[in-house]
Each structure stands twice: as C-alpha cells, then as structure tokens.
Design goal:
single chain; mainly alpha
Length: 300
C-alpha cells in the first residue's frame, strides 16, 4: 500500500508539474488560451462524469450546491488565470508562483473563517510573500530574449493562486460533509460550464478549426494527466497518509516545472528567480507544517 501512495503522490506531482510546460508548448504552436482551457477542462470533466455514472453514486442537491461553491473558484477561475499567465511568464516561474497557494490559503482562512495562525505560519506567510515579490522585482519572466512580462504574468498567476486558495478555504467548510468523490462531479461540471461560457463571452469560444492531431492529443493529455490525475492521485493518497505528506505534491511540482521548462523549452532561470522561488517554497512549507502542528495539537 505504501508504494501505491508514493506512486500516487509522485504521479500527481509529475502531472501537475508538466501542466505548465505542456501549455507553453501549445502556445508556441499558436493555440489560444481559451482553447487550452476548454479542451483541458472538458476532457477532465467527461472522465469524472463517466466515473461517477459507472459507480452509480447519488449526487444530492446539497452536494451539487456545495460542489459548485468549491468548483467555481477552483475549476472555473484558477485554470483560466494560471493558463493566461503563461502567455507572459515561463512554466518554471508560474510554477513558483503556484507554490504560494498555501500562503494565500492561510491568509484567507484567517480573514474569512477566523482560523488561528501560529507564529510559524505567520513567519511562513511573510517569507512566501517576500519570495513572490522578489520574483516580480527581479524583472525576469523566464522566457529569455527579453520576452514576456513578469509583472503581468505574476499578477495573473497570483490571482490564480488566490482563486485556488479561496476554493481551499471553502472546501474546509463543506468537504468534510461529503465524500470527495461525490463532490468531484458538481465541482468539475459547474466549473467547466462557467469556463466555457466565459470563453465564448470573452473570446468567441475556443479556436480548434486549425488544430492538428498532435495538438489535440497534447490538450487531451493535459486534461487527463495534468488536471484529472493530480486530483485523483491526491484524493487517493489522502485516504492512507497525512495531509503533510500529500502536500509534498505541491512542493515537487514547481521543481518539475522549472526543470522541464529549462530542458524542453530553453527557458531561463536567473538568480532572482531562484532566490524568490526558494523563499516562496520555504514560506509555503512553514505555513503547511504550522497548520498540521496546530491541528495535531488541537486534536490531542
């Protein structure tokens, strides 16, 4: 069983880490932002619906409502913002901004549901925010050749992290009331429906007419391997191990994004990016560890 848990965490980190690399490849080939968003989310949603239908799970009106609350920021907002940011920053830089999700979650948890913050967590919040600011102030987008804008890309990525964090805070209220597998269907269906509607309102819908078969396969692979797999993998691992161990996924994924971007896309890593990334990841670790210790103390 332990090997399966390690495998699930590892597969989730790889899938999540290569997501931004795959999106950057799609952009290089001329695929639009909302085409990536729509195809990726629809693919994952079809797989989730198929699973729920085959399992004959009963999804009540309450589950639909609570799943929608969690899914709108997590599925409809966060992917659009993260994928949009990759028009302006490298896969590696975006991955480092994503590490700030635990930091934003700690802040929102304190503001919205009055969660207590330990001194370790506060230190982590400060460290993470300083790291994010340092990446932006470095002026390096990671794309090389002076391309991109770390300010615009950073703002979009940070907004995506905030949306994902809002979903995490909402899920702390509603997720314990239901089986996570039951919440998956309303989360994905509601979030994907809104994302597709927005794509038509903002950009006239996805542009798939000139997409080649390899590009279709890439986007479908992103939907299954970089959207569905991390969700299922972390869900499976959380049944058999602690939240702190499952959180390792979030620390490995950015490293994979950085390495994958450098090796596969010739992206640039500067001293400022590395320094900011180390601080951001250290802050995220402190926030997560502080939360786990607080929960352990409260339950003892």
């Amino acid at each position: 069983m332990r090997a399966r848990v390690v495998g699930a965490i590892g597969a989730s980190a790889i899938g999540w880490g290569f997501a931004s690399v795959g999106v950057r490849v799609a952009f290089v080939e001329g695929v639009t932002t909302f085409t990536v968003v729509d195809v990726r989310l629809v693919t994952a949603t079809v797989a989730v619906v198929a699973f729920v239908v085959t399992q004959r799970r009963k999804i009540t009106a309450q589950i639909w409502r609570h799943g929608a609350y969690i899914g709108i920021p997590r599925i409809a907002l966060a992917p659009v913002l993260f994928i949009s940011s990759l028009q302006h920053i490298s896969a590696g830089v975006e991955g480092l901004f994503i590490t700030l999700i635990p930091v934003f979650t700690g802040i929102m948890g304190w503001l919205l549901i009055r969660e207590h913050l330990t001194r370790v967590q506060v230190g982590g919040l400060v460290l993470g925010l300083v790291g994010g600011a340092l990446i932006i102030l470095s002026g390096e987008s990671g794309l090389g050749g002076g391309e991109g804008s770390v300010v615009l890309g950073g703002v979009l990525a940070l907004a995506g992290a905030a949306a994902a964090s809002l979903s995490a805070v909402i899920s702390r209220k509603y997720a314990p009331l239901h089986d996570t597998a039951d919440l998956a269907m309303p989360m994905f269906v509601t979030g994907t429906a809104l994302a597709v509607i927005w794509s038509f309102v903002i950009a006239g819908g996805p542009s798939t007419a000139e997409m080649t078969v390899p590009l279709w396969l890439l986007l479908v692979a992103l939907g299954l391997g970089s959207t569905l797999l991390p969700f299922v993998g972390t869900l499976y691992a959380s049944r058999f191990t602690s939240a702190a161990r499952v959180a390792v996924t979030g620390y490995l994924a950015p490293v994979i994004s950085v390495v994958g971007g450098v090796v596969l896309l010739d992206e640039v890593v500067t001293v400022g990016i590395v320094a900011g990334g180390v601080l951001a990841m250290a802050g995220a670790v402190l926030v997560s560890v502080g939360r786990v210790r607080a929960l352990t103390t409260a339950g003892s």
